[in-house]
Amino acid sequence: MEPSKSSIQSLVSEIKKEVFSNDNLHEFVSSSAYDTAWLAMIPDDPRKQNCPMFENCLNWILKNQNQDGFWGETNDEGLPTIDTLPATLACMVALQTWNVGQENIDKGLAFVYSKAEILLKINYQKLPRWFVIVFPAMIALAQDSCLELVFPQGSKGVLDDIFFKRQQILKTEELVDESQYCDLPLLAYIESLPSTYNVQQNEIVKHLSNDGSLFQSPSATACAFMATGNLKCRRYLMSLVQNCPNGGVPAKYPMDEELIKLGMVDRVQRLGLAEHFNEEIEKILAKIYRDQKNHKAKPGKTNTLLPIKLYKDSLTFRLLRMQGYEVNPGNMCWFLNDAEILKHMEENFEQFIIVMYSVYTATDLLFPGEYELEKAREFAKRMLERSIKRNKDHNFVLSKRFQNVIKHELKFPWIARLDHLDHRKWIEEYNVTPLWIGKTSFYRLSCLDNKNLMQLAVENYEFRQLIYRNELEELKRWSMKWGLSDMGFGREKTTYLYFAIAASNSLPLEPIVRLIGAKAGIIITVADDFYDMEGSLSELEVLTDAVKRWDGKGLQGHGKTIFNVLDDLVKDITSKCHTKERSGIEEKIRDIWRETFVSWMVEKTWSHSGYIPSVNEYLQTAMISIAAHTLVLPASCFLNPCIPIEKLKPAEYENITKLLMAITRLLNDTRSYQKEKADGKMNLVLLHLNENPEAHIDESIAYVEENVGMKRKEFLKHVLMDGFDVMPKPCKNIHLSCLKAFQMFFNSSNLFDSKTALADDIKKAIYLPIDRTPKHFLKPLPSPVPAKKKDNITKISASFDGALRNQGSTNVIKQQTNFGKISIKRPEKVHIPVRFHFCFI
């Protein structure tokens, strides 16, 4: 069934209620099975221990086991994430504690046996430190709870290594390191510390936050409460559960509400839905901007962990700048001035991949003179390229989908991507939301995976496709009516041009804006080819003179066809404009076309005579002959608010229009110099080479590309910021769309002149519906191994934590298991950094 406007409006209304009108933002954070399990273990009365304090948490565990037997998240390939191992163990312990859910426990044990080995091995190169600390402790806790854990013999080596790494961490790190800002301290893992630490109550209370939490960790606070009975801890836990009515609690509480809202805005925009939530987006960003201005805190180190802070700062910068707010690059580039931070990020780059992706995308919006942003972009690009290489060599840290996200971002810059196709990628291929690795588990914003939101994204995209198909058919009929699709020479680009105009802008433009732009593009292409390859010099002089006089008398053949369709287009534009503006607009639009045809005639004369103009002389003509302004200015008459009439006059073009004309010309020149050299035409690359005979062609291309880069920064400043032009925002946006279309055509090669290069993109943009097929790669869970076939398995027969507890002050403890001995030194001082990074699921 085709999507309808009424269905879309209904979904928009529901999402506004579900997502944007919900004051309890903590409901949007996905539940952590691990933390929920720890709250479920708390007895209502420590003396009797006959029922849980938070029965809702226990019920959540009973109801939220995955069908394959685990608790926790799955990644984009359908596989359980590494956090499912400690989470599943903790949930089984919680059920065992209250003697409920035996069927759930059996499924959990089967999962551990059947999947633990492969999960440990595929994550072996990237096991986070929190896992190394917590997983052995959960094994110990499960054994103490009389759960019979069985691991395949093949997991022996990895388990050995995990136990050894835990030993190394425990003996070398401080319990709390006040100078540490990159990672959580070991005390945040209090529930996983061996009893030999004998952490004193006053040490726990000393580090409680004002809200009563221990490092805002529900699991650590639950353990702290059971150890101390502290009332502040109790109040924190009660508040947490009250704000999570379904019983599942997040991995961190309270969450940064600004970060949640920024995530909501980012998600809505990436899915192509911003047009439906403009008021909500503006309200959120305006408040964040005010708070940022009023806060007046110096950028740099804070109590927030480094990856979270840098992610938030870069996301804030990008969203605010894109919305037109004046933001200081220093708000996100502060990390460049701290050698210690840079060293840490280089050495632990896998923790910062999503952060670097966010930094890199923020630097798409560079303005002139922002050298800090340029350095940040270079640093982020280097880190992302390193992660791709490391993942290729070692199957290291990236999911397949996020590999594709990064590769696509590095290969196709934002300025060269069409909005409509970008939205499709995020709906279909990159249907991912940022997952934070908290203390011991993944958590994500559930509002970003809202089913109605995804349904709206699909319907909205396919509704646009329906509109685009109808408009393209109308355009083809128009082109055939005037004979433009069968001129017998040149390039037939009706579909290409409509595709580029429609797909480059996600704004809710009126159909007439797209159709006028596309019709102008078709006429430009046909006329340009007529001047370049078909018309004789005398024919072209006659046509140029007719356009200057705006009188087609005496024209014949192709020249007559071109003038007649042009005259009809200008009349059509004039007739559809507001009555009071018609008389002034018609002549000004004619003037735009006049100067365009004159520029083609000048270039033809140069080519015919062999004249070589100076660079300045060439650019004055060539930035007109590229005809980008001829596309956007007449179409801008139908925007709301529309372009001021005086800005249609060639002598009164705004700087943003002049920059568009210059950039599009230079882009074209970098990819067409070989063809134009063969045709005897001039080109800036060839002119530079002519003026610098000792230079290589690559140097001339680099010279032009450098000019493109400088002018593009200036252009973006004019598009995004107020005060540089009197042009309304919609007119600025259509300038940006035009540049993105040109950048797409000429980013790395000349796609415009290719007959097949854009065929797949055109199908995706206009014809092919969204692929809604779920992509799951998880094989069915095998049945638990029969008892008679347990010869090739490893059974944990002694509790790791219990061994530490029973040995008192012994420095070296030997733990006997069926897979060998593990030596554990009791540390004097301990500290554990947590791998608190972002990844895409």
From TrEMBL:
All residue ranges annotated as the Terpene synthase metal-binding domain in the record: 482-714
Instruction: Alphabetically list the UniProt keywords.
Output: Lyase, Magnesium, Metal-binding
Q: Per its record, what are the GO molecular function terms?
A: carbon-oxygen lyase activity, acting on phosphates; metal ion binding
Q: Check the record and name the Gene3D superfamilies matching this protein.
A: 1.50.10.160, Farnesyl Diphosphate Synthase, Terpene synthase, N-terminal domain
Q: Which cofactor does it need?
A: Mg(2+)
Query: By its UniProt entry, which Pfam families does this protein fall under?
Result: Terpene_synth, Terpene_synth_C
Name the GO terms of the biological process aspect. diterpenoid biosynthetic process
Instruction: Indicate the segments forming the Terpene synthase N-terminal domain, all copies.
Output: 206-409
PANTHER family attached here?
Answer: (E,E)-GERANYLLINALOOL SYNTHASE (PTHR31739:SF25), ENT-COPALYL DIPHOSPHATE SYNTHASE, CHLOROPLASTIC (PTHR31739)
Question: What is the designated name of this protein?
Answer: Geranyllinalool synthase
Organism this protein belongs to: Forsythia ovata
